[in-house]
UvrABC system protein C
Amino acid sequence: MEKPALEVQLQTLPNSPGVYQYYDKNGKILYVGKAKNLKKRVTSYFTKRHDSHRIGVMVKKIHEIKHIVVASETDALLLENNLIKKHQPRFNVMLKDDKTYPWICIKNERFPRVFPTRKLIKDGSEYYGPFTSFKTVNTLLDLIKGLYKLRTCNYDLAEDKIRQGKYKVCLEYHLGNCEGPCEAKQAEEDYNRNIEAIRQIVKGNFKDSLQQFRNQMKRHAENMEFEDAQRIKDKITVLENYQSKSTVVNPKINNVDVFSITSDEGYGYVNFLQISHGAIIRSHTIEMKKKLDETDQELLELAIPEIRQRFSSNSKEIYLPFKIEFAEDVKVTVPKLGDKKKIVELSLRNAKYYRQERFKQMKIVDPDRHVNRVMAQMKEDLRLSVEPRHIECFDNSNIQGTNPVAACVVFKNGKPSKKDYRKFNIKTVEGPNDFASMEEVVFRRYRRLLNEGEELPQLIIVDGGKGQLSSGVKALETLGLRGKIAIIGIAKRLEEIFYPGDSIPLYLDKKSESLKIIQQLRNEAHRFGITFHRNKRSKTALNTELESIAGIGEKTVVELLKHFRSVKRVKEASKESLSEVVGASKAGIIYNHYKSET
C-alpha cells in the first residue's frame, strides 16, 4: 500500500489517548504533542484558524502524521516529554530543556532517605514515578511523613561512625519528626520496616492510609473545621487518582528493543518500540506483504534485522511476544507478566491500531480493492466455490404463531442492497412452525427469481440452526437448485455456522471480517423482519374490529381513529357525533352494528 494522503490519515486516526508527531516533506519532525483523543486533537489543527503565527506556519508544512497510542493521559504526557527531549522538534517550545518529571527516590544507603528528585542516578537507589505534577509527589511525601518518622539529614550513617558518636541529633529529633538513628536511638530493623511500608504506599497500595485520611476528615467536619476537612479531602482526591506505574517510563527497563506483530491474510504489521534509559523514544510500524503465506514468526524474523539496521539500534536485548530464531548476539526475552509484559502489549496495541487504520484508508482510497479482498476472504473462510458477491439472508418473525412473517435481506459486494429487500406473509403454515415457514419463503423467493429470469445469489444464509437449514435445503431441492447455490445456517448462541449434511459446525474467528458480514446480514434480516411484524401486528390490533363491519373500509377507520383516538370511544359515540366525522350513512351502519351487539 502507498502512503495515504494527509486528508485520509485524518479520517482514520483513533479516538484514543496518545502522542502525535508531525513531519515535513523531507521526513523531518516538526512537532510532538499529546492528546486525550488523538482524532479530535489532530483534526483541530486543520479545521480552525490559529491565532499563533508559529502554529499556522507549522500546519502548512505538515506532510505526514504519525502517532503512538497509549493506555492513559498520564502516559501520553510522559511519552510527549520523552520524544521532545529526544528529537528536539522545531515547533515545540516547552519541554526541550533537560528538566524532567519528578520521581520519589528511596536512597540506596543505611537508614534510607525518601525525597523527590528530577535526576535518576544509577547507584542502586529505588525510583518511583515519574509523576506529572509535584502536587502528587508532595501529597505522597506528606502522607509518608505523617505516618512514619524518617531522617532528612544526609549523614553517612555507617555502623562504625554511629558507634564512635560522630553525629548528634538535630532539631528534627526534638520536634518529633525523627527517631534519632544517628545516635542509635532507633534500630535499623525498625527503620527498614517503615521503609517497606513506604514502598507499598508509593506503589499505590495505601488503602489503610486513605482510611486514616477519611477518619481525619470526618473528625474535622464534626468539629466544624471545614477548611482543614477540605485540605484532607484534596489529599484523598490526589491519592485516589494516583497511578504509580507508567508503561512508557520505567527505570527498571534499560536499553531494549520491543517488537510485536499482528497479521491478516495478505499482510503482517510489525511494531517497534525503542527504549533508552527506561523511556520510550521511538515507535515505528511497518507493513510486510506476504508472498508465500508466511507465519508471524517468519515475518518477525525478517523484520527485526531490517528495522534495527534502519534505526541503527545496538540494544543487546529484545522483548518479543513469542520465541523466534535470531542469529545475532542478542538476548531474546518473552515476558510473561509485569512491566515487561505491559510494554509488549503496548507495542501490540499500536500494531493493531496501524492495521485498522490501513483498512480504513484502503476503503476510502481504493474501495474496489477492499471489496475484492473481503470477498476472496469469505470464499476461503466459508469454503465456497465462488466469491459470494450476492448474498441473501432469511429470518422468521412471529409471536406464538400470530401474524407470522419472514424477511429476506440482500447484500451485494458486502453492502446492503435495500431496494432488493423483500417481505413475506406466511400463507401455508398454521401455528408457530419456524421450519415450515422457512421452507415456504425460500421456495417462494427462488421460484419467483427463476420465473422472472433474475440472477440468483451465490450464498443463502438462514437465521437458525440445523432445522431451519434443512428446511431451506428442502425448498432448494424442490426447485432443482440444490448444489447450484451454497446455503448455510447461523445459530445465535455461539455463532455456529452449519452446512447441509454436516453435523459439526464451523466456528469462524470472532474478529474475522467474514463473520462480521454474516452477523451484519443476520442482524439486518432480524431488524427488517421484526419491523414488518410489528407494523402488521399493530395494524391488525387496531383495525380488525372496525374493518370487520360490512361497508366500512380502511379510510373510514383511519378517520374514526384520528377523531375518537380509540375503538372503545367509537363504540360509545352517539350517531350524531359519528355523522360529523364519516357522514350519516356510515354513521348509521357503525351505530347499528354496535347497538345490535348489546
The mean pLDDT is 82. The first strand starts at residue 18 and ends at 23.
